[in-house]
């Protein structure tokens, strides 16, 4: 097996701001970057057209490209009908920003897809994703749902009911391993028609956990990235670890991505750890072993 996929890094994983993070990503050997675009300097409302052109030019000048933006608005995802008007609108603006910066992919968490398609939460999620998917499709883009909160089978069943593939998948094998216990290789095979972006991350599942306690749900606390990081760091239920030290079988994972003809980015995400830059550099070298 010889990988030809480009290697990406989530700039925010360095914890040093966008510009310095871009420099670190380049220095670590990445070819592309993924950037959070929901608040602060990367909020679409804070970036004029001139600022977007300047940022794109800066990234081009480093010899990098953007693999995707992160448009994760947190909370209960799109499970709460009353919140969806502003969340859907903001998500559309993030897609517009992505296109201005040279990518057509925005990754997000939508909230756990219920197993029961007749439930109110399922119908609320469906209505939001249908609108998002149609908008993305109309501009040649994708909202990519990150795997992990539900099984690959439940996610595929949900995606199959939407009228377009404008809502697709950002495949994260570690989330599956750590939270649902799903098999990433079988997950890739199931979701092969929807995968437009992937994360390269590793983890261990230490004991069974209710996904709603991790990702939030109606009737539960909302999703909170800091809370997830604390859960990961505490190691009570699962632990995110450097590549090759967890339960993700990367030989099999990379092989099955090749098998389905995936040619997109392998983007490194490191959400915890005292030395993220060290771990990211090692991760880049880990992937390069397969080239």
From TrEMBL:
This is Sugar phosphate isomerase/epimerase. It comes from Paenibacillus polysaccharolyticus. Signal peptide: none annotated. GO terms for molecular function: isomerase activity. Keywords: Isomerase. Pfam families: AP_endonuc_2. Residues 24-289 form the Xylose isomerase-like TIM barrel domain.
């Amino acid at each position: 097996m010889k990988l030809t996929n480009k290697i990406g890094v989530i700039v925010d994983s360095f914890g040093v701001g966008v510009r310095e993070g871009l420099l670190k990503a380049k220095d670590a050997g990445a070819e592309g970057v993924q950037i959070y675009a929901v608040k602060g300097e990367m909020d679409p409302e804070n970036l004029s057209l001139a600022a977007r052109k300047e940022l794109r030019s800066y990234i081009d000048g480093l010899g990098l490209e953007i693999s995707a933006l992160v448009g994760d608005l947190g909370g209960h995802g799109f499970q709460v009908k009353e919140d969806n008007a502003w969340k859907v609108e903001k998500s559309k603006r993030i897609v517009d920003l992505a296109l201005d910066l040279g990518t057509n992919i925005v990754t997000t968490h939508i909230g756990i897809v219920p197993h029961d398609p007749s439930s109110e939460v399922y119908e609320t999620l469906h209505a939001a994703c249908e609108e998002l998917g149609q908008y993305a499709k109309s501009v040649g883009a994708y909202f990519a749902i990150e795997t992990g909160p539900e099984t690959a089978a439940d996610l595929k069943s949900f995606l199959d009911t939407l009228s377009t593939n404008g809502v697709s998948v950002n495949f994260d094998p570690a989330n599956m391993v750590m939270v649902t216990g799903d098999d990433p290789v079988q997950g890739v095979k199931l979701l092969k028609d929807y995968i437009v972006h992937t994360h390269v991350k590793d983890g261990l599942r230490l004991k069974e956990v209710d996904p709603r306690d991790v990702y939030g749900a109606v009737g539960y606390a909302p999703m909170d990235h800091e809370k997830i990081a604390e859960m990961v760091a505490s190691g009570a239920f699962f632990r995110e670890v450097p590549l090759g030290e967890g339960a993700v079988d990367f030989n099999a994972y990379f092989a099955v991505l090749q098998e389905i003809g995936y040619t997109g980015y392998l983007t490194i995400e490191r959400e915890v750890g005292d030395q993220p830059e060290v771990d990211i550099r090692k991760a880049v070298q880990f992937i390069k072993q397969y080239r």
